[in-house]
Structure formats: structure tokens, C-alpha cells
Amino acid sequence: MSFEIKIPIFEGPFDLLLFFIQRDELDIHDIPISSITNDFLGYMEDMERLNIELASDFIVVAATLMRIKAKMLLPRVEKDEEGNDIDPRDELVKHLLEYMKYKSVLNTLEEWETEMLDREKRGNLTSEINKIEEEIGVETELQNVDLFSLLRFYQGAMKRLEAEDNAPRHQVIKYPYSQEERQSSILKTLVDRPKFSFIELVEADFNNVAIVFNFLAVLELLSQNKITIEVHEGFNNFDIKRIDNAA
Predict the structure, then answer these.
(1) Mean pLDDT of 152-172
(2) Are 200 and 238 in contact (CB under 8 A)?
(3) Closest residue by Cα to residue 131 from 143, 123, 120, 119
(4) What are 79-131's pLDDT values in tens digits?
(5) H runs (alpha helix) in the chain
(6) Do 10 and 19 contact (CB within 8 A), yes or no?
(7) 168-184 in b/e burial notation, b at 16+ Cβ within 10 A?
(8) CA geometry: angle at 72 spanning 66 and 75, to 5°?
(9) pTM value surpassing 0.70
(10) Is the pLDDT of residue 1 over 50?
(11) What is the rounded CA–CA span in Å between residue 46 and residue 222?
(12) What is the pLDDT of residue 116?
């Protein structure tokens, strides 16, 4: 017995976001960032398990969603020049609306193209090509090609090849982190210890990506009332404390 598994492949990250919004009938101007970020990261993890390579645009949008999520969890609210609150989701909504506009135009153009192809059929291509060759004198031009022209063409082709070889290339490094794993690690540590310093998490895996994942994990656990923090003097460190069930 054979089984068929169908995983939807989306044209880009905004196409995937619009799918989640339409699927859950969400208001595009009031997107629940937490749930849609989890759905987005879940889709990326499914693609990685199936060894399907995603474009770098998906990684950029995933980082943007996590940044927006972190801003919405923080108590500090940014304000514009007029003193109005700035919604961290505004920029994302703007891009989604622009993408929807261009996508609708592309769908219309594809329909027009299909309609025109159905109306107008191509004629005798061989006859048309021969007629064009006679008008522009292709054979005459080939007869006038000399060694200098060929060498100049070869030199130009080699320069373009060298430019392509020396073009900058970006390498995407995959880090073995996830929000679920980071949150679970923090809670397991608090089973044996009533509290520990955030610096311990930083020193255990000292790189920028790990620090961001750990910080977002602390924010998420705070929002779920699973932990509390104790801030020391200054702003360089704080303790992560477990919440007593009896209390």
C-alpha cells in the first residue's frame, strides 16, 4: 500500500502569510502575531524535515515576525512624532497589502494572456523566420565578421564570466535552536533550582543568535506566567525565578 503526502509549496513568505490569514479568517489590520509566527516557523520546520530548501526571503520574514513579537511583549510603547502609539505590525501590514495588490494584478494579466493565446494562433514559423532573415540580411552580416570582431566578442564574454564568478555570495547558517527547546530548557533548570542568572544562559552558548532565542524564550514564559524575573541594580543582568505553585 502506498501513501501520498501533499505539502503546499508557496511562491514566497508573503504568500504563506496570506494563506494563514485567509485560512483563519483573520483581520489583516489586526494580525495575532504570536499564533501566525508559530504557524510560519512550523511550516519552515516541516520543509526542513522533508529536506526542501526554502528561499532566504522566508528566513528574513521569520526574523521580522520574531522581532515584532518581541516588541509586542515588551511594556515600552513607541510613539510617532505626533505622540500616537506605533503598532509594530504596521510595516508588515503595509507590505502584505502591497503584495495583495500586485498579486491581483498578476492574476489578471495571466487571464488576459490565456485569453489572447486562445484567440490568436501562430502562423507558419519557418516562413516568418525566413522572411525576417531576408529583411535584416543575416547572411550578409556573418560574411562581414572578421577576426578582430570575434576577439572583441570573446573578451567581452570572458569579462562577464569573471564578473559572475567574483559576484558576492551569501551563505545561510542554520542554527540548532527553537523556541520550544529554549523554553523547555529554562523550565527544566528551574525544577532543581529556584532561580538562576540570565548570564548563565548567555555563557552556556555564547553567540548572537542563541542570545536572541534565549531572550525571546524568557519573554514568552513571562507572558504565560510560568516564570518571574528579579532585576538587579543596573541593567546588565537579571535572575530567572520559578513561580511557586502554592503561592
Answers:
(1) 77
(2) no
(3) 123
(4) 767 767 677 788 888 888 888 888 777 777 777 777 777 665 656 667 776 67
(5) 13-23, 33-49, 56-73, 90-119, 125-136, 138-143, 147-165, 179-192, 198-204, 208-223
(6) yes
(7) eeeeeeeeebebeebbe
(8) 135
(9) no
(10) no
(11) 28
(12) 72
Residue 229 burial (C-beta neighbours within 10 Å; 0-12, 13-18, 19+)? middle
Angle between helix 33-49 and helix 13-23 axes, rounded to 10 deg = 120
Contact, 53 vs 60, CB < 8 A? no
Q: In this structure, are residues 211 and 202 in contact, taking their beta carbons and an 8 Å threshold? A: yes
Residue written as cell 522566508?
58
> Residue 157, SS3?
helix
Three cell numbers, residue 48: 526542513
Q: Which three cell numbers stand for residue 143?
A: 560574411
Q: Which three cell numbers stand for residue 57?
A: 526571503
Task: For residue 177, give the DSSP letter.
Answer: -
Q: Under DSSP, is residue 241 helix (H, G, I), strand (E, B) or coil?
A: strand
Instruction: Give the DSSP H or E segment for 189.
Output: helix 179-192
Task: Output the pLDDT for position 142.
Answer: 53
Tell which residue, 175, 184, 166, 192, has the closest CA to residue 226.
184
